[in-house]
Amino acid sequence: MDFLQLIISGLANGCVYGLIALGFVLIYKATEAVNFAQGDFMMLGAFVCIGFTNHEYMGLDFWLAVPLSILVMGAFGYLFNWGILRHMFGQSQTSIVILTIAMGFIIRFFAGATWSHEPTSLETPYAGQDVRAGGLVLGVDEVLIVAVTAILTLVFYLFFSRTKVGLAMQAASQNQLAAYYMGIPVKRVHSLVWGLSGMVAAVAGILFASKGAIDPSTGLLGIKAFAAAAIGGFGSLPGALLGGLIIGLVEPLASRYGPPGISQIAPYAILLLILIFRPGGIFSQTLSKKV
After folding, report:
1. Which residue ranges traverse the bilayer (predicted)?
2. Considering the entire predicted model, what is its pTM?
3. Of the candidates 124, 240, 257, 269, which lies 20 to 30 Å from 249 by C-alpha distance?
4. Is 59 exposed, middle or buried (0-12, 13-18, 19+ CB in 10 A)?
């Protein structure tokens, strides 16, 4: 039973990594850029919900605060692209990477100054509640994390494969100029996908904060989520989830059965092996571009 509890806890953590990795993949599929502030978006979304929900702040009902927080982060992502990144249209991806790293530092400072640098928990109506299945005791928060992650993965997979907007996003990622000449509003598409990424980050942050305390440094979880996206294969939504689950499972198992400290390096050791033997990730997607 202890082993199964480790697996379940690892799956829940892995789903959070997978949700953050989904944000990486969403932006990469649409713009071929990597947002290294995605983990900080997640942390900011959690603090926004804390600000709406917790009694020492606004004290709104949790089920009202959740959609409000998601909308706020969607607007934040949209405006971040519209107000800053849009002016870098056509610039190298290296410039965007540097900009997002700097933005991560700004978000962490803002969150600490606005809310707190101390660990803070989100007040939820299901805090401390459990679901019993045989000899297993599952926290309601863990069950929600797994369920919401599975639903979002399916929704975004269908979005990119079945809708005109999703296909337009992929076309814009292949060749921005050609997509523009074909009538696709590339700048608007980019802003939309950044808004979607902000909303996904808010969901991940809310789920993570309902499971444990967060502080501004929680945004550094984005590094593990980046590894998850790379393991699964950039551009693959199921791969992002799988990569997150792999890291989430490896960490508690390595901590329990491995030597001290091995759990901290195990995810990156797996990433290194993947990059050596399958550089495109588990769900490698090789796309050709016409010039």
Report:
1. 6-28, 40-57, 63-84, 96-116, 136-160, 192-214, 226-250, 262-283
2. 0.88
3. 124
4. exposed
Burial 216-237 (b: 16+ CB within 10 A, else e): bebbebbebbbbbbbbbbbbbb
Q: One-letter amino acid identity for 122?
A: L
How many other C-beta atoms lie within 10 A of the C-beta of residue 101? Answer: 14
- The residue length of the chain stands at 291
What is the signed CA dihedral for 147, 170, 180, 190, rounded to 10 degrees? 30
Token pair belonging to 224? 């593990």
Q: How distant, in Å, are the alpha carbons of 30, 48, 148, 166, 268 from that of 235? A: 9, 29, 21, 13, 20
CA atoms of 133 and 40, how far apart (whole Å): 35
15-51 per-position pLDDT tens digit: 999 999 988 988 887 777 889 999 999 999 999 999 9
Residues ≥6 apart with Cβ < 8 Å to 79: none
Say how far apart CA 35 and CA 122 lie, in whole Å: 26
Asked whether the beta carbons of 175 and 41 are under 8 A apart, the reply is no
**Burial status of residue 56 (CB atoms within 10 A of its CB: 0-12, 13-18, 19 or more):** exposed
pLDDT, tens digit (0-9, with 9 covering 90-100), for 279-291 = 888 887 655 444 4
Token pair for residue 289? Answer: 């571009």
